[in-house]
Fold each of these.
Amino acid sequence: MEIQGNLEELLSTEKEQNSPPSLKRPLLPKGAHPVETGKYDIPTNEINNLYARVKESIEDRLPGTVVHGRPRLGKTRAIAYLMKALPMDFEKLPMYNLLCREHTKPNEDVFFTEILKDIGHGFYSSRNAVLKRERLLKFLIEQADAAGQNRTVFFLDDAQRLHEIQYGWLMDISNELDRYGINLTVFLVGQNELLNQRSVFFEEEKYQIIGRFMVEPYKFHGIRSEDDLNECLLCYDEGAFYPYDSAWSFTRYYFPESFEKEEFRLSNYSKQLFDVFVSLRQEAGISKSFEIPMQYVTRTIEFALKKYGCEGNDVESLNQALWKRAIKSSGYIEAEIYRGPD
């Protein structure tokens, strides 16, 4: 799948007009490449697994699913990817990405203000909670009707921040939509505290919340195997392109000559990179379950592309020492030393 960058920033001029066609590296504004901006998505094995689960939940019209995992695994980026990819299977399906903010005392007016803002409604701050609720329902119904759909999807990011009363307000929205024949599927995406909340609801016999939003939890993982890592590196080699409609993959852009002449590919280093992650953990005495959050994987790869490619040291090949430097620069080892229990 191609990864699109910011189209307005591209320049199609060539670095050297007399270069061989295969080596006419695009000349881009400084800092414009997605590796520099961080504005790109990598469809990892775990994201593909999550996609399958989300697709099934929508098809089965499930009211809600919990997606939980430790911080920095890439859950927020996964939502962004799903929002782009799901229309391939669900054309025109209304989908909304909502951010759960931290509130000590939940307020109904604030709750509906934030939802209206996140769905892109033009009038999210005026009037009272009752009118905002009506405005939200009217908008959701109109959008579903305009799309010819009888279902709507919410992704709630950082859902561990929700309070019990806010689940009640969500149920009210779902019930109102149901009266109009519209099914609402809610994906609660957040940290592992979501499971603790689920346990509390069980103890307090709040089965209406569990049955509506928390029936079958899904645990989201980071990189756990060499195969997972290879899938990521392969995307830089042949799945992520910039300019978006060019043949310039991220790897080719930063290692143009080696890519052409020596068949340089990051995916060829999957085992070596994985082994270095393992050895650095051992050196640091880290015995916790092995899992690399995507944040540190992308930082490591981006460091290698920028520092070792043609805009940096311009090396012809990578080795363990170079990968060690890249991993250490990502902050992964420090984060693993100080992270809490799984």
Note: DSSP finds 15 helices and five strands in the chain.
Amino acid sequence: MDGRFSGDALRVASIPYNQVYIRHLEAVEGERPTRVRRLPDPHPAGGSRFTQSGWWPPAMLSAQWVAQHHTDFDLMHVHFGFDAVSPADLAALIDELRRHGKPLVYTAHDLRNPHHRDPQAHDAQLDLLVPAADRVITLTQGAATEIRRRWGVDAIVLPHPHVVDFPTMERLQGRRLRMGTGPEPPSASPPFRIGVHLKSLRENMDPGIVEPLAAAVSGLGPAELVVNLHREVLDPGSTDYRADLDALLRGGHADGRWVLDVHDYYDERAFFGYLASLDVSVLPYRFGTHSGWLEACRDVGTSVIAPSCGHYRDQHPSVVEYAHDERGLDAASLRDAVHLLYRHRPWPAPSVAERKAQRRDLAAEHERLYEAVLASRSVDAVQG
């Protein structure tokens, strides 16, 4: 793999690169680029495991890859993917980076892995990554406070960039304005739409939210609850089939308590369109940290009700919180959140211009951070 770039580019082994958060750390298309050049993702180690993540599992996350390609990059920046790496192999990777004088930057997206019921494995990986990193970045002040408490490390807080591309954002925001669904109370037609998407029931998803959410919606005027789910969960021929959930969800749909939408994974266009069709999206998480889903909702002007676990509320003041964590769900707080947003949408969507300005700032901040890390490592090398 040829990872060399011309000029005085800052060559970053980004893990991964082809993921929306990382791609949107680049300069805005058509504007002056920064010096940052992120290496393209190598072919996944052992072949791609998920079609939704063509970079998985990441080949760069190995001491062997660093040994073979250390002349191709100036620093490594880890975001996602290390859940596929054992603590021993992660320690070997860190040692190999140090052997070649390559700084490590880590962005702490997940302080609790949403795919792991037991946090022990993820904690062991964070216990290596966070203290070893030359710089730690995170997305919210709440997460930075937790990082300081757990590891004694001061993390840099940089917000989540936009998720929806700018032309689509402009189109979907414009459609919402034309439909008259601004910050005013909802009119009699169309009905106020509240959505909860259970996806494929990953470990932090709580399907028990559906009935209390339906009860909250039933106390409103013209409103409907839309429950989304990936097809395999209600397919009797699938290993992921949930007979109990099948009976509950199809029964509630038949009774008119909610609209059930069972489908395959959305492509990007369908996903953004689905979010824009809602007035409110409810995050049904029992544990977690941050959410790109939340940011996509903001991009298209959909309000968000988020659980009290993690640091979702810290992502933006517009997020309305309800009490929900591994100890359980408080139905009264969920009802209050739904009714609040039915009466009053508290925050407009960020404009395309605002999201572009934020992206410029993020691109510049990452460029400065990489320059500072490399300058510090150079000084250490001279003094050493």
Note: Confidence is low (pLDDT under 50) at residues 1-6.
Amino acid sequence: MLLAIAIMALGAVVLGAALGFASIKFKVEGDPLVEKIEAILPQTQCGQCGFPGCKPYAEAIAKGDVDINLCPPGGMEGVAKLADLLGREVKPLDAEEKPKQIAIIDENTCIGCTLCIQACPVDAIVGAAKQMHTIITPLCTGCELCLPPCPVECIRMEAITENIDNWKWKYPVVEIKAAPLQKAA
């Protein structure tokens, strides 16, 4: 009896492993073109392009439904990269190009209404009801979505000056591979 239970348990484990493997084996990946387009977009999730985030905009670009010049945070650099990827013409940006920026909360003025927290698409604002809020600067994408809901206008945008910590936001990281060393004869 005990042996039969052990054999059934082992069978269940083997079956579960087999089913788990099957689900991984047949996993459907996303559209590679959408993923490449999305990798070029700045991931601000700001909606300035008219879409609720970077992925829906990337999907619309891949379908050919929209122009590639609608992303102000991506700027002309983003338009040029998208044009190169897609073999399209580089068009002028359809909005004013802005420098990289982050939100700053005047904590003395903040009333703790939580409206900015609800508006932030990347959860870069922390605080509690009726307590002051603050920005987690490394998470802030500068989307400006926290500005309109603030009833006391205690949030401002501040341009980020380029330094050693944030230069990579502007320039892509390039991996350099050295050639293998040859042994002397």
Note: Strands lie at 101-105, 125-126, 134-135, 155-159.
Amino acid sequence: MLGRKTKSTIDSLIGMSTMIEGNLHFKGGLRIDGQVKGNVIAEPESASMLVISESAKVEGEVRVAHLVVNGEIIGPVYSTELLELEPKARITGDVHYKALEMHGGALVSGKLTHDQAGEPVLKLALSNT
């Protein structure tokens, strides 16, 4: 494993039938099941977690400490801690990360950039378990 994962709770939910147009700023944990047309930005300097579910789509910049993607993001992604790309993840845009866990089936159409000094931490999950 990549070490200890940050334990975060989901404080807010954007439901499957919800569509938001505009920028979204949040603290703590957020799960998106619907659609967001705008930037999704977590409070800097604080622990944050964002889950993009299989049914979700975000069109805009995403900035968060811990990001779990199993849906679609169209725009640049900045993860200051851990980026988890699940099997159905689809990202169209450049991705900046500190640690990366990528499962088989996940797709990134853009440049992957490790943003911290030292060697990048990369884990490829070869099975879909």
Note: DSSP finds no helices and 16 strands in the chain.
